[in-house]
Amino acid sequence: IMEHLEQLLKEIIIPDKNVRIEHSWAGIMGVGKNKKPIIRTIAPGIHCGVRMGGMGVAIGSLVGKELAESI
């Protein structure tokens, strides 16, 4: 997928420009019918803060804080 996106960048989005990608990230987005993140203890010593619906950058630190406080 990343190779295809880089090809689109170089051939369609910014053709005739020498571009270098310095950083990239890939991950799994957790979405659901409910927009509220899941913050809970799964088992002793196992905790999760998931399902941010693509808003992880915006609300990830708040979810992390709430998760830490719940532990």
Task: Looking at this protein, list some descriptive labels.
71 residues, alpha+beta, two-stranded antiparallel sheet, 2 helices, 15% strand
What does this molecule look like?
The mean pLDDT is 90. The protein is an alpha+beta fold and 71 residues long. The chain is built from two helices and two strands, in the order αββα. The protein has a two-stranded antiparallel ribbon. The chain is elongated and about 55 Å long. The relative contact order is 0.15.
Strand count, sense and closure of the main sheet? Answer: 2 strands, antiparallel
Order of helices and strands: HEEH
Query: What share of residues is helical?
Result: 25-40%
Structural class determined from secondary elements? alpha+beta
**What is the topology, as strand order, of the major beta sheet?**
1-2
Mean pLDDT: 90
**Number of separate helices:** 2
Quick take:
The protein is an alpha+beta fold and 71 residues long.
Give the topology, please.
Blueprint: H1 2-13, E1 38-43, E2 46-50, H2 56-70
Antiparallel strand pairs: 1-2
